[in-house]
Amino acid sequence: MITSIQTNKPAAPSGTKRRLKIWLFVIALFMGWAIYTFITQLESQGQAEIKLAEVQGKIDVATKQMNDLRLQVERLNDKEYIEQLATKEQGLVKKGEKQIVVE
After folding, report:
1. Assigned domain for 32 exists
2. In this structure, are residues 79 and 85 in contact, taking their beta carbons and an 8 Å threshold?
3. pLDDT digits (tens, 9 = 90+) for 57-98
4. What distance in Å separates the CA atoms of residue 101 and residue 62, rounded to the nearest whole number?
């Protein structure tokens, strides 16, 4: 005959269950904090990207203005351009020329 030995394991004591519940509660609190932190960082990143895009736009505008001013400075060093400005915008004439005003 085969005798089987039955070992009666006592049910988990209530202290073990209590520690497990506390551990799960701590883990849940930590995960909640981690998720909250992650979401707030995503919001901050989105706002930073918006600000970056605005500043990049301002830089592009300033760069375009700077290039336009450089072109204007180069033109002002050209005698023909200065002559055109003097005759068209200022109404000046060369010696021997007469100005015709169309009304």
Report:
1. yes
2. no
3. 999 999 999 999 999 999 989 888 888 887 777 777 777 777
4. 39
The total number of structural domains that make up the chain: 1
Residue identified by tokens 């007469």 is 98
Total-model pTM = 0.53
Residue 44, domain extent: 16-88
Contact 83, 89 (CB under 8 A): no
DSSP string, 34-96: HHHHHHHHHHHHHHHHHHHHHHHHHHHHHHHHHHHHHHHHHHHT-HHHHHHHHHHTS----TT
2 located within any domain: no
